[in-house]
Amino acid sequence: MSFRCQRVLRCRGVACVSVVLLGLTGCGTSAQPRRTVPEHRVGAATTSVVCNPAAREAIARQLGIRAGTVSERRGTGSNDEPQCTFGVQHPRRSVIVNVDSSPQPYARLERTIDEAAQVFTATRESPAPQGVSHLGLVASWLPASSELMTTDTRRLITVTIDWVGASQRRQLVLATVAARPYLGRFNSRAVQQTEP
Questions:
Q1: What is the mean pLDDT of the chain?
Q2: pTM
Q3: Which of 57, 66, 96, 148 could cysteine-pair with 159, CB 3.0–4.6 Å?
Q4: Is cis: bond before 129, omega within 30 of 0?
């Protein structure tokens, strides 16, 4: 231990607590850097959170094309969380899956749905969110942004569809099949711990 740390550790009282912490930080820590592409165990297989092969297969199956014709590109979303863009060239379509592992995914999803449902004018200017059954703990389709959001209480999954000319229904079906492979098992009791 360095001289600086010994001197800091001799402090007493509440005022010295923050000094102790700063001093210890200067003595070196073994903090591990956050992995860019974490892995989670879903079912029996370990799959990459970002570009999930099962999602690629499901997208291809839904579009009636070979999985080899669906490209994938890893990246980071505007929320600084990992995401994968699955693309099809002819006609051009893309499915962006953002996997957000930040705390309280259920509470954040509920807040997003509530905000999207609010109306501040005499008439609604954008379509209201639509609940999606049998997908994660809770799921909602946000037609105004062509986004599907769902959670398994551990991660917030957002699927954005870019498919010009497709009906809302076709976009929703594609988003649903893309989201499903990213969802793990969830415990309904976990919701009580994530509520604001």
A1: 77
A2: 0.70
A3: 148
A4: no
pLDDT score, position 19: 33
CB-based contacts of 27, cutoff 8 Å, min separation 6: 1, 2, 4, 5
Domain ranges of the chain: 1-31, 39-194
Tell me how far apart the alpha carbons of residues 186 and 35 are, in angstroms, rounded to a whole number. 23
Three-class SS state of 62? helix
* CA–CA separation, 139 and 56 (whole Å): 20
pLDDT value of position 128: 87
In order of 12, 20, 31, the CA distances from 28 in angstroms are 22, 13, 9
Residue 193: the pLDDT is: 53
Q: Give 171's contacts (C-beta < 8 A, 6+ positions apart).
A: 146, 161, 163
Does 148 score more than 80 pLDDT? Answer: yes
Q: What is the CATH number of domain 39-194?
A: 3.40.1000
Give Cβ neighbours of residue 153 (< 8 Å, ≥ 6 apart). 105, 106, 137, 186, 187, 190, 191, 194
Do 81 and 102 form a contact (C-beta atoms < 8 A)?
yes
Tokens representing residue 12 in the block: 């007493």
Kindly report, residue by residue over 35-84, the tens digit of the pLDDT.
334 444 443 333 446 999 999 999 999 999 999 999 999 999 999 999 99
Say how far apart CA 72 and CA 88 lie, in whole Å: 9
